[in-house]
Write a structure and sequence with these properties.
By secondary structure, the chain is α+β, with helices and mostly antiparallel strands. The protein has four helices and eight strands, in the order H-H-E-E-E-E-H-H-E-E-E-E. The relative contact order is 0.16.
Length: 178
């Protein structure tokens, strides 16, 4: 709760002053507040991170809100900036060996990352293991390309196909590490 209040207060009061956040006062700030509220209705817990994304495969902009629930489970809520509506809810697991991930995994992490890097070259800086709403496991790779350009690429662990690709404009918070 403390992280949630601190993040909301810092954004609302403009205490986080960066060029990336400059356009998130007014309408955008209101949409962020609505997205945080919508995410809280789906999952109780604290906000670990908020990312502002350009949805290159769907068009538009979105916030990806990471919530850690009281049981320690991490969730990602994708919320449309245009309507402040939840677009997707994914569960994160700690590794590819988690039973929720491994039972349907047919493509290993190395092969999946090579697929992502072949199309989106750069430095692989972070990997997440996600369970999609339909139960499909996927890898989410953060690939740093150049200053201001970090690609977020999802690759299905069942098929090896790229299922989602976005560009992260900014983030607040930090990745949870075990």
């Amino acid at each position: 709760m403390k992280n949630r209040i601190t993040l909301l207060a810092a954004i609302s009061l403009g205490l986080i002053a960066t060029p990336a956040l400059a356009d998130h006062h007014g309408h955008h700030g209101n949409m962020l507040h609505k997205c945080l509220k919508a995410a809280s209705k789906l999952k109780e817990g604290y906000y670990a991170k908020v990312e502002y994304l350009s949805l290159t495969d769907k068009g538009g902009k979105a916030y990806e809100i990471e919530i850690k629930d009281p049981d320690g489970v991490e969730w990602e809520v994708m919320c449309s900036l245009h309507h402040a509506e939840v677009m997707e809810l994914e569960r994160e697991v700690a590794s590819a060996s988690d039973p929720l991930f491994s039972r349907r995994m047919k493509v290993d992490e190395k092969t999946a990352s090579e697929t992502a890097l072949a199309i989106y070259p750069g430095k692989l800086v972070h990997t997440e293991y996600e369970i999609e709403p339909d139960g499909t496991p996927s890898y989410e790779f953060d690939i740093w390309s150049r200053p201001g350009v970090t690609f977020k690429i999802e690759v299905s662990a069942e098929t090896g196909a790229i299922t989602e690709y976005n560009v992260e404009a900014w983030d607040i918070g930090r990745e949870e590490e075990d």
